[in-house]
Amino acid sequence: MSRHRHHAGSGAAIDRGPSPYLIGAAIGLLNICAFAAFRKGIGVSGAYESSAALVARRLAPDAAHVNDYVKARKDPPKFNWESWLVLGTILGGMAAARTRGGHDAEVDDRLSAEPKRSPLASAAGGAMLMFGARMADGCTSGHALSGTAQGAGSSWLFTPLMFGVGSLLVRRARGARRRGGEV
Amino acid sequence: MAEMNESTRNALGMATGIVFGALLQRGGLADSRTIVGQLTGDDSRVAKTMGTAVAVGALGHRWLHRRGLTTDEPKPMNPVGLVGGAVLFGAGMALSGYCPGTAAAAAGSGRREAVWAMAGMLAAAGVFVATYPRLKRALEAGTLGRVTVAGGTPARAATPPLDVVVRPRAPDARVKPAS
């Protein structure tokens, strides 16, 4: 495999990082390892659900809806390899940012190109997409990355629709902001 | 691959996550601006990265599957859950600029907005757990079972048109008997 073109040195503010094709190929290879090791591709959103279910059971072990939930899902929630994968993803993001020099947030402050998202927008958006991901039984990793590679019909329905809706809404919002700004 | 014990699986899951998170961060995907840039069409890194990852993953999956080294359990085709979920997911991704994986990598890399996004995700996962017993029937209404999109087989010279192989599983794949 070819190496990175160069390693980002210190103060590489304009550096866009390694080629997206290289990163994509590496993620693809990582997913092949997952298919072999776990007999399942990389998936992230399921771990959020099982973690929430474990917390709910811990806080209110006798609540009726927790028991109904465990009955409705085939297997009871567990803190399994997928949950460890999410913890690993946090650590991996941390390690990659640190080894390049500091937090991403500090780099953001230097650049300050685009307005940052408000906490409310971030949390509300996160809540909407997670509910959607659990309705559809997968997210950008479980469906768009792994399911499409498996040729799952469900993933090929979910992925274009999800990106299409997101794209439409962002473009509409931007158009509305522009018109608002001109007046 | 031989069956491995629980702690080995967990350790491998953690290792997979670390590499995954580092790749997302280095690829610039652990940043809401990159994702929103893809949605507006100003930044094509998400499409390039994911397209390559899916192509490589598909070749590897095919190779493993032919040798019986991985199972082929596509997620079930539940039109209601998938369409409703995709609309909500797309809207949420447009609003937050993240998805569950990239938010985790971004939170680790020090972006506070990603921590807020993850908090929203966990809260919504809790709401889903609480409402799932009531939603289950609606989400699985009209399910087609596990559908595989076959086509573009490299072994064949001409690519056949997409054909949908409907493979209904055990009776419980259609409608769970009301309990």
In short:
The complex is a heterodimer of chains A (183) and B (179). Chain A is mostly helical. In chain A, 70% of the residues lie in helices and 0% in strands.
What average pLDDT do the residues of chain B reach? 86
Instruction: Give the CA-CA distance, first to last residue of chain A.
Output: 54 Å
Poorly predicted segments of chain A: 1-14
Determine the structural class of chain B based on helices, strands and strand pairing.
Answer: mainly alpha
Distance between the termini of chain B: 37 Å
Helicity of chain B, as a percent range? 55-70%
Strand order of the largest sheet of chain B: 1-2
Low-pLDDT sequence parts of chain B: 151-161, 173-179
Rg of chain B over CA atoms, rounded to whole Å, is 19 Å
Figure out the total of helices of chain A: 8
Q: Shape of chain B, please?
A: globular
The major sheet of chain A is characterized as: none
Main sheet specs of chain B? 2 strands, antiparallel
Total beta strand runs of chain B: 2
Can you count the helices of chain B?
6
Mean pLDDT of chain A: 86
Could you explain the architecture of this structure?
The complex is a heterodimer of chains A (183) and B (179). With 183 residues, chain A is mostly helical. Chain A is built from eight helices and no strands. The model of chain A is unreliable at 1-14 (pLDDT under 50). Chain B has 179 residues and is mostly helical. Helix content of chain B is 60%, strand content 6%. Chain B is built from six helices and two strands, in the order ααααααββ. In chain B, strands 1-2 form a two-stranded antiparallel sheet. In chain B, helix 1 crosses helix 5 (100-108), helix 4 (79-96) runs antiparallel to helix 6 and helix 5 packs antiparallel against helix 6. The longest helix of chain B has 28 residues, at 112-139. Chain B is globular and about 40 Å long. At the A-B interface, helix 1, helix 2, helix 3, helix 4 and helix 5 of A face helix 1, helix 2, helix 3, helix 4 and helix 5 of B.
